[in-house]
Amino acid sequence: MRQEIEVTGIVLYVSLVGEYDKRLVILTKECGKITVFANGARKPNSSFRAASQSFVMGTFTVIPTREAYNLVKVDVKEYFHDIAYDMEKMCYASYFSEFMSYYTREGDFCTDNLNLLYVTFKALLDNRVSNELIRYIYELRLMDIEGQGLQAYSCVKCGEKEGIRYFDAKAGGVLCEKCALELKVTSKVSDSLIYTLQYIVSTPVNKLYGFTLSEKVMAELAFVAERFRNEYVDKKFKSLETLSTLG
Ligand SMILES: [Zn+2]
Question: How crowded is residue 130: how many other Cβ atoms within 10 Å of its Cβ?
Fold first, then answer.
C-alpha cells in the first residue's frame, strides 16, 4: 500500500472533474507543483468542500497514485477568501498563480516560492501597497528565485559599481555610462529606481511589500519590470490579458 504524505502548500488552480470531484494544482514546499484529486469535494457534506478552492493555504495529506495524488485530509491555515470579493485582486491573484505555475514543476524544492506567494497574497489583502506595485515586485523577485534575476548592484557588462544609470533587459540588468554608450543603450534610470531594484532582489521576503513609490519611480519600475519579463518569459498569461481589459 502506498504511503500517505503530508505537504504544505497553496492551491494554484482548481478545475471540476466529473459530477462531484475537483482537480487541484498545488504548489508545495516539499514536492513542488503537484496535481491532487479531491474526490467528492463538490458534495454538500464533503470535508474538502471549503478547502478545495484557489489560493487556500494549508497542510494537505495526500496519497500518491500512478499519475497524481489523492487528497486524504486538509488542515487549512489561510483561506484568502476576501480575494474573491474584489474582481481586480482576483485577477492579480490568478496571474500570480499562473506565473508561479510557469516556473515550477513536480519534484522541485519550493520553500522560497511558497513563502513568496504567501506574503504576496497577504499584501494583496492588506491594501497598503497598490496591486500594480505588488505585481512588479512579485515578478522580479520570483524571476530572481528562479535564477533569472535582474542584476541591480553593478554594471552587467564591466562590474563597475559606481555611476550605474542605465538599464537594458537584453543585457540582464543595469549598466554604467561607458558600457551603455558602447551597447547603444539609451534607457536611463534614476538612483531611486536602482535602489528599489536592489531592495526587491535582496530584502527578506517578509519585508518585500513594505514600501511605496512616487509616481515617477513607479513608472520607471513598470517600464523595467515589463521589459525584463518580456525578454525572459516566453508565455502569454491568460489572467494578464483579463487584467488589461479591466482598466
Ligand atoms: Zn560598465
Answer: 12
Topology adopted by domain 5-79: OB fold (Dihydrolipoamide Acetyltransferase, E2P) (2.40.50)
Ligand 1 centroid – CA 157 distance (Å): 5
Q: Tell me the CA–centroid distance for residue 226 and ligand 1, in Å.
A: 23
Instruction: Assign 52 to helix, strand or coil.
Output: coil
CA distances (Å), origin 32, targets 126, 210, 232: 27, 28, 22
Dump pLDDT digits (tens) for 54-70.
Answer: 999 999 999 999 989 99
| CATH T-level fold of 82-246 | de novo design (two linked rop proteins) (1.20.1440)
| Percent of residues in the chain assigned helix, strand, coil, to nearest 5 | 40, 25, 35
Distance (Å) from CA 162 to ligand 1 centroid: 9
